């Protein structure tokens, strides 16, 4: 059942993104940014954690999950360090994912030699 919930949750988030691409004039970059901000806001309001509990990886892997991780990291760091945690918590909580994305990007650039499309 966990796999089905993850599929449904992630699929729903992707479907909403596709509808936004097809039916609005928003650029993909703005939609992606909106997803991160939505994850932060929903987490701050306490609404995203139940979605994570139900959807599992379907809720934590998309960009809304990244926003949720940022918010959780800030909340934890503020509780431990005070206001300094506002600046450090988000990056500490998401450092592994950010590092993995940078390493994967560098490896892809080495192996596939990206360039301008002509």
Count the DSSP helices. Answer: 6
The counted number of beta strands is 0
Please give the domain count: 1
Distance between the termini: 47 Å
**Which class best fits the helix and strand makeup?**
mainly alpha
Helical content, roughly? over 70%
Overall body shape: globular
Description:
By secondary structure, the protein is mainly α. The chain has helices spanning 2-23, 28-44, 48-55, 57-60, 63-81, 85-112. Helix 2 (28-44) packs across helix 5. It has one domain (2-112). The chain is built from six helices and no strands.
What is shown here, in short?
This protein has about 120 residues and is mainly α.
Task: List the topology elements.
Elements: H1 2-23, H2 28-44, H3 48-55, H4 57-60, H5 63-81, H6 85-112
What key phrases describe this protein's structure?
118 residues; mainly alpha; globular; 6 helices; single chain
């Amino acid at each position: 059942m966990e796999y089905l919930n993850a599929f449904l949750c992630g699929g729903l988030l992707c479907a909403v993104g596709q509808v936004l691409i097809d039916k609005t004039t928003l650029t993909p970059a703005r939609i992606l940014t909106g997803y991160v901000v939505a994850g932060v806001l929903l987490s701050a309001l306490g609404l995203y954690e139940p979605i994570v509990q139900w959807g599992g990886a379907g809720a934590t892997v998309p960009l809304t999950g990244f926003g949720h991780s940022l918010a959780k990291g800030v909340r934890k760091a503020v509780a431990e360090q005070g206001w300094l945690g506002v600046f450090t918590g988000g990056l500490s909580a998401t450092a592994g994912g950010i590092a993995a994305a940078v390493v994967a990007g560098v490896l892809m650039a080495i192996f596939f030699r990206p360039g301008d499309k002509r």
